[in-house]
Amino acid sequence: MRLLILGGVAAGTKIAAKFMREDRSAEVVLLNKGDDISYAGCGLPYYIGNVIPKKEQLIVNTPAQYAKLTGVCVHTQTEAVGIDPDKKEVTGVNMATGERICYSYDKLAICTGASPVKPPIKGCDLQNVFFVRTPDDAIRVREAIDTGRIRRAAVVGAGYVGLEVAENLAQRGIQTMVLDMAPHALPGFDGEMAVYAERMLKEADIPVVTGVAVTAIEGDGKAEKIITEKGEYPADLVILSAGIRPNTAFLEGSGIEMVKGAVLTDERGRTNLPDIYAAGDCAMTRHAVTGKRVWSPMGSTANIAGRLVAQNIAGAGIGYRGVLGTAVCKLPGFHAGRTGLTEQQAKAEGFSAVSVITVVDDKAHYYPKAGSFIIKMIADKQTLKLLGVQVFGTGAVDKIVDIAVTGIMLNASLGDLADMDLAYAPPFSTAIHPFTHTLNILMNKINGTFETITPKEFARGGADGYLIVDACMKPSIAGAPYLELTDVEGPVNGLDPNEKILLVCNKGKRAYLLQNRLKYYGYRHTRVLEGGITFNKVEV
Questions:
Q1: Whole-angstrom distance, CA of residue 342 vs CA of residue 338
Q2: How far is 185 from 504, CA to CA, in rounded Å?
Q3: Taking a C-beta distance cutoff of 8 angstroms, is the pair 209, 80 a contact?
Q4: Domains along the sequence of the chain with CATH
Q5: Which of 84, 101, 201, 370 is deepest in the core (most CB within 10 A)?
Q6: Which residues have a Cβ under 8 Å from the Cβ of 56 and sit 6 or more positions away?
Q7: CB 271 within 8 A of CB 257
Q8: Tens of pLDDT along 15-47?
Q9: Which residues contact 138 (CB under 8 A, 6 or more apart)?
Q10: What is the pTM for the complete model shown?
Q11: What are the backbone dihedrals phi and psi of residue 336, each rounded to the nearest 5 degrees, phi first?
Q12: DSSP assignment, residue 466?
């Protein structure tokens, strides 16, 4: 059998290598438009920041190394420009000579990836305006920085890659800002979580300007300033990270079904045409919770889907359970991770969504460099099914995310996950794991033991009419009466049991303990501000 694969990097090379292991007798041919077929695309921001010192470290395998390792026949500098499904042929063009060559196939895998969106604005072709998609892009950015003439940079796009690039530019001593036309940074996070991240970025001297469209980049031959509908900002270097689109224009007229340029596939990676598969950034997949078609242009998705496609071409018949939008991102001074549905998405999908935001220790508080996780956990109030998690912290946020992924993929309820025997030692975690701690707090909220006002409700005026009471370790909220938890052994002088009271502490724990005491002594209208003053800005 002859398997023809269009595109390398992630899905294409994974399909080719795995299929050769499944059927060594097969002929596998891979066509790739560029010279590099296997590189660390997710490592590019860190090459810009000198975290990865040598450009050679970005190349996982050269075409020759890959061919020798796998037995795949690799044709670089060859772009697929058309498919004839009836003849089972692909037309390719040699980028160096312009020669057109027909490649026959028994099975075809389309893995042509995606390319950066070039905004329709003036000045994109000026010197020192870059995309960050390939090793060559990252090399050019670093070469510009190494001249010593870059002082200020603007990153257009506040997604994961844009923020990672911004962090690495700032580490190089460049004054960096981020602009995005979306309402908030970090797609996939609920609004209040994104606002917190934007605040943290600003404190790290990386301001994020959202809700603003870039209209032009101006300069005398090279970038000097960026123009927006709300003003202009000086920039010697501009990174365009405003999204990507699938490389599928050559499929027009082929009969292959697509949605917004992404190839539609079933759970086995098959397109609507016989013997044609697709995977990676050019293809759609499905959401593991909703079952709906989604686009997941992630390296992890490409590799997982690519492996399954190879097995299915070999006859395995394995269905891909889908994606959760899982992501993790290193930012200046903290990390961000998420998976599953946001609260807003969960409600839109018809779930009876309930959430809690906690500030919990990431390891034993007495251990050196102990920090906190800020976790938002979302579940369905009726079924108690875990739906999603978002987390910030200086520690290993990925372990919180990965536990949540496991639970969601196994359709677990909060009860199923409540008493897991998770790893504990002071350098790594707390005796009650931070994931379990948050889950317990959410369960307390659902059963009414823990009554709260969420940060989103608080920001929208949900505490209007409440007396704010400072329940911190020491007085910390100017103008608010202070109440020491351990002093409350009965009704509090001057505090009306019928008054609406909002208890606010540093993280939420002491306020919860105080609420528990006050309820016992007859205070029926208390609420706790989730996340305390760590997450919220509280003024009286």
A1: 9
A2: 27
A3: no
A4: 2-39+51-113+245-313 (3.50.50.60), 129-242 (3.50.50.60), 333-446 (3.30.390.30), 452-535 (3.40.250.10)
A5: 201
A6: none
A7: yes
A8: 999 999 999 999 999 999 999 888 888 999 999
A9: 44, 45, 47, 48, 55, 58, 132
A10: 0.95
A11: -130, 140
A12: P
